Amino acid sequence: MNDDLCRLSAVEQLSALRRRELSAVELMRAHLDRIDRHNPRVNAIATLVPERALADAKAADDRLAAGEEPGPLHGLPVAHKDLHLTKGIRTTFGSPALAGFVPDEDDLVVERLRAAGAITIGKTNTPEFGAGSHTFNPVFGTTRNPYDLTRSAGGSSGGAAAALAAGFQPIADGSDMGGSLRNPASFCNVVGLRPSPGRVPGYPSALGFARLGVQGPMARTVADTALTLSVLAGPDDRSPIALTDPGETFRRPLERDLTGLRVAWSPDLGGAVPVERGVLEVLTPQVKLFERLGCVVERDCPDFTGADEVFRTLRAWQFEQSFGELVDREPDSVKPALRRNVEQGRALTGPDLGRAEALRTQLYHRVREFFTRYDVLLLPVCQVLPFDAGQEYPASVDGVPQEDYLGWMRSCYFVSTVGNPALSVPGGFTDGGLPVGLQIVGPPRADFFVLQVGYAFEQATGYGRRAPALS
C-alpha cells in the first residue's frame, strides 16, 4: 500500500490530501519508508531529515483540520537539490570544501516550495558544484539509475531525477546550465523543464543578470511539472531578470489540439553532433506519432554555428566568478575538473567575452527566425544512452572521441545558449529497458506551449507510466 501511494502523481496525492482521505503524516511515512528501503542502492537522497519532515507533516495536518486553506503543494514531500541553499539543513554542493555547511537562508526556489505547502525531507545528490552531467562526488558517492543500477542517473540534477523515478518524492527542484534538468530526466524516464531565463527567479546569486543557468521543475508527469512551475515561477524584485507573468498561469488546462502544428525534427542538430544509434532507434519512430496527432513534420534544424564557443566561453567565465575564490583558498578540496574550468575562465580576455556575446546574439536571431517557420523543434535530449556509472563521462559518442566531460552534452547546451524553453519528456525505451527522453523546444518564452505539446505526447504514449523494477 505504501508503495502504491508513492507511485501516485503529485496531482493525485494532493487530491487525496485535500479530501482528507490521506494525511500528510501518512504520505510522509510512506515516502520515508520507501527511501529507507531503496535509497541505500540508488543513493538519490544525500541528506535526510525524517524527524523534521514528520513534524512539519503533522503541522500541515493540523492546519488543514483547523480549516486553513491548503497551499497548492500542501503536504507533498520534496528533497531539494544540494546546490540550493536550504535553511537549517546541510547543503554541501557535493564538495568536501563545504561538507559541513548549514545555510541560514533558503534559495528562492526552496522558499517558494515551502510557502506553497511542500514539506522538506532533505537534499538530493549532485556532482561537485554541479560540474558535469553524471552525479557523483566525494562526499556522498554516486547516484545510480533506478532503471539499471549499474548506469548513470545523469546530472547535475541526477539525485532529483532518480528520487522521482524511485518514488522517493512526487516533485523536485533542479537547475540547468548545460542540460542538468533535461539529461537526468531523460536517463530516469521523468519530466524536466528548462524554463526561459527569468521564468523562475534566482536568489541569492552573485550573477543576477546571467542567463545561461536557470532553476526549474521536475516531476513524473507533465501536469505535475506544470504545477510545480506554477509555484516556482512569477516575478520577484530580488532577481533583475525575473519575468512578470504570474506563476498561476501554469495551472491552466494543458489539453491542446496539435492539428496543423508545424514541427521540425532533427536527430543530430543539423549534423552538428554525433548521436548513438540506440538513441535514434527509440526516438525516430516518435516523429510518426506527431503526424498522427495532426502535425506537419519536416526534418530541419536551426543553424547552431557558434553555440559551442558561446557556451564554453560564458560557462568558463561564470565558473571563475562563482568558484575562483574557493579554488584559490582550498585548491585540494575541489575536483581537478573544477580547477580547470576556473583556469579557463581566467584565461579569457575582454574581447573573448565580447565575441561570445556577439555570436550569441547572432545565434538567437537565427533561432528566432527559425521559429517563424516552425512552432516546435524536436531533438534528442541526450546523445548517448545511460552509461556505466563507473565512468566519469562517455569517452566517445557513436565512435567520435569527446575531448572533455562537456562534449556529450551538446544536444542540450546548444539550446541553453539561446534561452528557449526546452522540455525533456519520456520518449521510449531500448530493448534492454533503458529510458530515452525526447527534447521539445519552443519559441522564446513559450514555456506553457512547450508543456502543452509535451502533455499531448505523454498522453498519447504513456512511456512515463513505466516504473523501475526496484525490489
Automatic annotation (TrEMBL):
Domain Amidase: 26-450
GO molecular function: catalytic activity
SUPFAM superfamilies: Amidase signature (AS) enzymes (SSF75304)
Pfam families, sorted: Amidase
Highest taxon of source: Bacteria
Residues in coiled coil: none
Alphabetical list of PANTHER family matching this protein: INDOLEACETAMIDE HYDROLASE, TRANSAMIDASE
Name of the protein this chain belongs to: Amidase
Organism taxonomic ancestry: Bacteria, Bacillati, Actinomycetota, Actinomycetes, Pseudonocardiales
